Amino acid sequence: MSFSNAFETTVLTWAFTTGSATRPTAWHLALFTSNPAEDASGTEVSGGAYARQAVTFTVSGNTASNSGAIEYPTATAGYGTVSHVGVFDASSGGNLISYAALTTSKTIDTGDVFRVPAGELDITLD
Q1: How far apart are CA 98 and CA 91, in angstroms?
Q2: By C-alpha distance, which of 118, 113, 121, 75 is closest to 97?
């Protein structure tokens, strides 16, 4: 996953200045049908019972991974083809922290459930 422009500034402020940086206290996974890019300009899924889902992380070495499974509600209408995910600091609105393309895009139709098993969402710094 890549960091957004806004979060890169937060990290650099914390690491290389004496200025204070506000740390997120909650994380939510968003689904996108286009690349959100560093400026959060992509198309987030909407409708069909979609809502960002809370996610918690465990850190080991230079990787943060989701500590539990993430499951979205059963789609009441198609989401389209989900190609990217993004981690936000709020359940709606908020700031994009990081984003990535899925290894394989997934079309979500009515009745489908999008799931991310525990340990499958990795954010790595190298």
Answers
A1: 15
A2: 121
> What is the model's pLDDT at position 10?
86
Largest alpha-carbon pair distance within the chain?
50
For the chain, give the secondary structure using H, E and C. CEECHHHHHHHHHHHHCCCCCCCCCCCEEEEECCCCCCCCCCCECCCCCCCCEECCEEEECCEEEECCCEECCCCCCCCEEEEEEEEECCCCCCCEEEEEEEEEEEEECCCCCCEECCCCCEEECC
Res. 126: pLDDT tops 80:
no
What percentage of the chain reaches a pLDDT higher than 90? 79
pLDDT above 70 covers what percent of the chain?
100
The Cα–Cα gap between 3 and 125 comes to: 10
